């Protein structure tokens, strides 16, 4: 095994200028990440300088077998924390050979919204709190939980320390450092209310970069759990009963909200979000009705309400924002399995472009 480790850790720059680029894309379910690697003649820093590539869409549920070719367009580059050196991770989106975005390509429409002059002028910032659950491989039960049984009730696990409270910290810390190495704007981690559940935060990130960074952070986490022999779950309610679900709370502000008088802009934006509550809920993740029950720090899925420091609301405004009269708010509705391209662009569209 030591020879295998030595080979994995080979420093290619000692003998060649060639690099390895790992192309990443989203598969047919909208949550399954796929990737494959190719050799490039030398380092590349600009995604527009990378070659397009293709894959078999009939094997990912994204094209019929008789016309299976799907084209990958490189969109964002990150340093590769697994191969290191000059090797890179490349976030891509997917198109038909004719250049049309395939139905599961949600990035293309998001990029159009973020490039709208009115949206670009507002410089929308996002901070996404990605919750997830680590499961034992063969039984799909949270790590640290007794097989077929339950740990003690919730209470000691949130930000907990100790072998009987924090399960999987080595994975979490590995992911944290790997994201920083990759150039992802990861801003923190913490243990969550349910044991075996954790959270990382990405942001503040501007516009389309929030989606790129969250997807690549998810990819890195998938790779690390693969190495650790643990299953990664983004299910919004992995364990039924008196256990917290998993969300992807999305913090948001525009330039107008961050400037003096921004609190009034925030209130008007929240009013718009309330008017489109059903449309947002429909786009905020599969199975969210199991999580948004009005219990466990959520608002009921059919009810829209907002409040200051209220974690049982659809939208929470922080005390600091209220006091300063400007700042940001948190949309607590998105599920852990939401598509960040969809959620971030929809919030911008509703609050900036949509006219009631």
From TrEMBL:
SUPFAM superfamilies attached here?
Glutamine synthetase, N-terminal domain (SSF54368), Glutamine synthetase/guanido kinase (SSF55931)
Superkingdom classification of source:
Eukaryota
What are the UniProt keywords, alphabetically? ATP-binding, Cytoplasm, Ligase, Nucleotide-binding
- At the top of the EC hierarchy, this enzyme's class is ligase
**Compartments (UniProt record):** Cytoplasm
Record keywords: Cytoplasm included?
Answer: yes
Asked if the Swiss-Prot or TrEMBL record annotates the protein with the keyword RNA-binding, the reply is no
Q: Pfam families given for it?
A: Gln-synt_C, Gln-synt_N
Q: Where is the GS catalytic domain?
A: 106-356
Domain called GS beta-grasp: residue spans: 19-99
* EC number(s) recorded for this UniProt protein: 6.3.1.2
Q: Which InterPro entries match?
A: Gln_synt_N, Gln_synt_N_sf, Gln_synth/guanido_kin_cat_dom, Gln_synth_cat_dom, Gln_synth_gly_rich_site, Gln_synth_N_conserv_site, Glutamine_Synthetase
Q: Which reaction does it catalyse?
A: L-glutamate + NH4(+) + ATP = L-glutamine + ADP + phosphate + H(+)
Which family is this protein grouped under? Belongs to the glutamine synthetase family.
What name does UniProt use for this protein? Glutamine synthetase
Query: Which species does this protein come from?
Result: Hibiscus sabdariffa (roselle)
């Amino acid at each position: 095994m030591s020879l295998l480790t030595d080979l994995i850790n080979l420093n290619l720059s000692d003998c060649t200028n060639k690099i390895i680029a790992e192309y990443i894309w989203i598969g047919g379910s909208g949550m399954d990440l796929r990737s494959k690697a190719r050799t490039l003649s030398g380092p590349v820093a600009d995604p527009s300088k990378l070659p397009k590539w293709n894959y078999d869409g009939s094997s990912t549920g994204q094209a019929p077998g008789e016309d299976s070719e799907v084209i990958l367009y490189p969109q964002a580059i990150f340093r590769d924390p697994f191969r290191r050196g000059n090797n890179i991770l490349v976030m891509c989106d997917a198109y038909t050979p004719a250049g049309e975005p395939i139905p599961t390509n949600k990035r293309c429409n998001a990029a159009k919204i973020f490039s709208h002059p009115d949206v670009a002028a507002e410089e929308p910032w996002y901070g996404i709190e990605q919750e997830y659950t680590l499961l034992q491989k063969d039984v799909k039960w949270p790590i640290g939980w007794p097989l077929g049984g339950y740990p003690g009730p919730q209470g000691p696990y949130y930000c907990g320390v100790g072998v009987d409270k924090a399960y999987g910290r080595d994975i979490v810390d590995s992911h944290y450092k790997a994201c920083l190495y990759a150039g992802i704007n990861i801003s923190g981690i913490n243990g969550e209310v349910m044991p075996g559940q954790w959270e990382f935060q990405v942001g503040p990130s501007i516009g389309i970069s929030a989606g790129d960074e969250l997807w690549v952070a998810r990819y890195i986490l998938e790779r690390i759990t693969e190495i650790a022999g643990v299953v990664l779950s983004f299910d919004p309610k992995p364990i039924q009963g008196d256990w917290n679900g998993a969300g992807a709370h999305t913090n948001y502000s525009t330039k107008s909200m961050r400037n003096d008088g921004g609190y009034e802009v925030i209130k008007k934006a929240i009013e718009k979000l309330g008017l489109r509550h059903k449309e947002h809920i429909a786009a905020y993740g599969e199975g969210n009705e199991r999580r948004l029950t009005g219990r466990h720090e959520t608002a009921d899925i059919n009810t829209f309400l907002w409040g200051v420091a209220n974690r049982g609301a659809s939208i929470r405004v922080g005390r600091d924002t209220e006091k300063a009269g400007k700042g940001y708010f948190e949309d607590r509705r998105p599920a852990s399995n939401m598509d960040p391209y969809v959620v971030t662009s929809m919030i911008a569209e509703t609050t900036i472009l949509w006219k009631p």
